[in-house]
Amino acid sequence: MWNAARDMVRDGELPPTAYLDAARAHLPYETDIAIVSGALAFARTQIADRYLPAADRPAALNTLSTIARDILRRTEGSENGDGQGLRLAAVRTFIDSATTPDGIQDWLSGGSVPGGPALDPELRWRILGRLAVLGATTPAAIEDELARDPSATGRQGAATCHAALPDPAAKQAAWDALFATDEHTDLSNYLFNATAVGFWAPEQLDLVRPYVARYFPEAVALAARRGPALAESAGRFAFPTPFVDTATLELGEECLRTADPSPALRRKLIDQLDDLRRALRVRGE
């Protein structure tokens, strides 16, 4: 059912809001972890972030938060693996769908979700990343968390959080790190991916809009200098995904026609532009 519904949304045969209505009605009672995780992820990353107009996004996020809360209530006290897996999927969705710091800030401060689970490093960084997008944390707080978790995963989490801050200086610093022209300041592939993931956010379109036109020529130059692995990352993680508009599509098409991107980058750009065309069709634009 859910795979068919997903395909119908992607093909423009089912309104995205109808998918959310079905999720709201059925997912709180679903017991299959794979179904719940997959349906919530599609609703969050595709429907809320790309297929719905920006004006409808807050309502979609609130619906997803409600679903997550219902799952957490139903599975509270569960000690079996399936119940704990459902709780983890719900916790991740609640974090990613938060529109205010209320709730998730309390989880971070307390170190656990009421009724479980305790916050492991992945969940702590996930919360801090969402707080960064919302402008509800500081560079100092990110550095404090990095001191708590100085692992490679911690360094990647910190890179994502710093890039996600809704501050012009933070965005400029992240962009300069991503598209460095000096091999002595190049990010590792892992830190490049982490920084790119934090850079673009649907909540920050006005702040990062000037970087959309810069992305295509600078990605082409970076891919030519650093090779196929980084080129693939630049096309996958650094692409301005939140911008579902014809202007971004036209910039991408022009890049493919005239800029001669490396084969690895070209493949990723083709995929990204196909997804962008699909999102525009779903929106009716």
From TrEMBL:
Molecular function via GO: aminopeptidase activity
Key word Protease present: yes
Domain ERAP1-like C-terminal: 1-278
Keyword Protease: yes
Keywords: Aminopeptidase, Hydrolase, Protease
InterPro entries: ERAP1-like_C_dom
Protein name as catalogued: Aminopeptidase
UniProt lineage: Bacteria, Bacillati, Actinomycetota, Actinomycetes, Kitasatosporales
